[in-house]
Batch of 2 targets.
Target 1
Amino acid sequence: MVSYAALTERNAVDDAIAEFDRLGRDAFLEKYGFGEAKEYFLVTERGRYDSKAIFGAAYERQHGTRLGPSDFNGGKNGAAGRLAQLGYTVEGLESAAGRLSFAVFADAMAEFKPPIANAHAIHAFMADKDFQEFYIPASRPYIAMISRGGNRPSAWIHRGFITHRKEDGTWDEIALPENRLRDGGGMRQRRREESDSRTCSTPGCGMVLPPSGVCDNC
């Protein structure tokens, strides 16, 4: 079994996230041989990432060993938990410690303070929804919302996007008007340029280049 503590380099995780952005979810998961996550997602301002696949890709970057989905666990005692220990926000691992809970959505919004430009789209999303509980975790990256009769979140409002589970069980993501990073400008573009300069340009490779600049994988 993999030693989860062996993943120590945040740069490896950041590079895996950048590759996910560059390839897109389907291509990234196919490349590394992982299925879609059901419960645990690494969340940044740019989006929501399948945490087990991100761990596997990051582990390969750091150690040069490719892991398959059967080689390690993805939950709180595995990949998701280790990513959280490295300082990343992971949906599904929310602890009640430091959590702010609300019975009224307006109170959660007042505490969260999303960009004003996003307020109309957020309220439009909420118009036909029936949530019974709202909370903001200690790291304050989103509002989690629990549907009436449920016991786990089924939707999350981030500062630049909304993710939610639809009635058929699939996931949907709604981009909000003010979301500079996900619109491809500023920081996201710089991160992508920096990542491209450190990774192999061979289609389908994407391995981090050593100091020599020559890919060991191609």
Target 2
Amino acid sequence: MTEIEEPIDAATVVVARDSSDGIEVLMLRRNSKIYFGGMWVFPGGRVDPEDRVDTTTVTMCDGSNGRGFHAAAIREAQEEAGIDLAGTELHHFAHWLPPAVRPKRFSTQFFLAAAPQGLDVSIDHGEITEHHWMTPSDALQRRSEGEIEIVTPTFCTLDWLRAFGSVEDACASVQESQCFHTHIKEVGGADPGMVAFYAGDVSYESLDLEAEGPRRRCYMLKSSWWWEEHPGEPQTT
């Protein structure tokens, strides 16, 4: 039996600003020679031991110690993009955990922050090779057309953010963090790919694509990607 590796604690911060085209988010491209190489991501990385000194905590889906994630998000934004978020409110909106089948996985807390005034992004050209401000819709379109590559949490975050007209509205919508602990199913046939299920989906345990009931899942198929969430049909008696 293959031993399941413990997930690595990590933090990510979505730095957002208002523009004439709506919300824009800062996207960074990772060096092709490192983990998630070539992917476009939000600033973030693993929680270091020194981050745990910070007394700021976040609520954890599993009830574990939430120290260090807030500090890690601030530190990674500084290291990867030269952004000082020390005086900025960070809104903790999600916890993402990949399926246990992954050989290396990160247990990542996601934060949302309004970009500080006069922000001047400065990447290190080491771990990060490019940066770009994109509206969520633009980023999703670029992924669809094959111009950029993103991972599932990034896709779902962008899909969520495109519903808001301003950064203030998006931040105000965050009442508590959402848990995205992934169960995944491979799909074959004419349109192959993967479907990721999350708690609250009728098929979270069974992985039955056709079961009737609440949906909370992400389709990542060759033809397209999309998020599906609804409470299902009301029960009749």
